[in-house]
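Researcher: Quick one. two chains, 530 residues in total.
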Amino acid sequence: MRIMRKYAVVYRSVLMENLQYIGNIALGFVGYFILIFVFMNLWGYMYGEPGTRIAGYTKEQMIWYVMVTEMIWFGARTGAIVNQVTTDIRGGNIAYLMNKPYHYTLYILARHTGEWCIRLPMYALLAVAMGLTMVGRIPGFGIPALLSSATSVVLGVTINGVFKICISLMSFWIEDARPFQWLYDKLILIVGTLFPIEIFPAVVRPFFKLTPIYTVCYGPAKLVVDFHMEQYSEILLRQFLYLAVGIGLMFFIYGKGVKRLYVNGG
Amino acid sequence: MKVIEVENLSKTFRVKQKEKGMKGSIQAIFRPQTTQVRAVDKVSFKVDEGEVLAFIGPNGAGKSTTIKMLTGILYPDGGSVKVLGIDPVKKRRQLAYQIGTVFGQKEQLWTHLTPYDNFKFFGAIYDLSDLETERRIRELTDTFALSEFINTPVRNLSLGQRIRCEIAASLIHRPKVLFLDEPTIGLDPVVKENIRSLIKRMNQEFNTTIFLTSHDIGDIEKLCRRVIIVNSGRIVLDDSMAHLQFADASLEDVIMKIYSNGSA
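Model:
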């Protein structure tokens, strides 16, 4: 419990810091609004007749799916996981963070959580407002679906953070890990965010289920648009497995990498 | 009691080399070349409890690398280190509870938070209770005269005020050893003097061992009882300040001579 207290304090400090930037975060709403607006029109054109289903999704479900995945995408894009680890390692600042009595990677994860705890609810409010006014309610969405999908979103955002940290930690070996970040981001964006997995050919779907796409974006969004208890259990189990493996990997990479640390100016 | 024991400590870095121009850049992709730089070369010394030690040398001498190995940030290639009886390589986090570090060129404070919030943060990081943290904040606020700006965001403080807060933050958990890496860099003479008297007071009141690196002769003369000079990764002088001050030349002349000759 005492160990967790320090990470809770990191989280709280980031929260306090980021509360000063709510205006800046809100500026990102423009990008989200434009993207959703484009996809609303695109799917509106693709669906044509009312009652049509594509890959098992109604038009409303499809638009809500994109809104939820984009909400996760925009809400979880925190400075802690996008730039900080790579910058800390390349610039040598990691030396001044790792001589404190906490684990550097958990410190970064706490920072990530502190940031998304402000960003994500803001984007969630925007998504709900846009969805209810421009698309309408999701049929069958009630309290169980809300609670389950909220849990799943939180786990998804955390898994995303862990994997992004793992990729950034590669900066211990290579000059710049950002190209790998870019590849990971694009994979998640194209396969899990803009289109649900069912859109893709049946032969590649099992592979997608093994990637972070399933646990980060697809799973939580699927629970919002089409909630089933069995599916919730499956997604939750996969998320916990992914989280355990991801955290183990993160500790392993950090443990190996930190021995190679070379700090400029000493 | 010895609080720092260093025996034949060594560290070598591999530094990338590249021929000049575009041709060199392309060659470096296919045939990367590196050279080995011996940053610290079989350094041995011991430091007593409550001692104020100056660990000085020209740029690139290996001072910061040594501090980073003493605090567990860098892994030595050879030799052994014990700080307060703890091996920093094996038990970095355990050691972190007992030492404090201030790097004059790096900020450890959260700039958007006030010094008070920063102290609360560091109190929690070092597992102090809320009550103990509040008590320490009051003590440090008095010692370092921080009351005027304790509720001002760090980004709005002057450099001198920030360094005072940096040192105060590094003392929140009552460390037994404090590593100060150029703590007065960039400060005006009045603020420097202020910081020096605070460091002195801290050493006298709490018997904190101070391990100081600085290029400022004033820091060394006014604070330290012993000086270790390193050059090219090796110790070239380890003597008491009293002995050095008996020399015919000034301390600055002695240091300059050693820096340029590479040995005493």
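The interface with chain A takes residues 13-14, 39, 62-65, 67-68, 71-75, 92-94, 96-97, 101, 103, 105-106, 108, 110, 112-113, 117, 120-121, 124-127 of chain B (CB under 8 Å).
Researcher: Thanks, that's what I needed.
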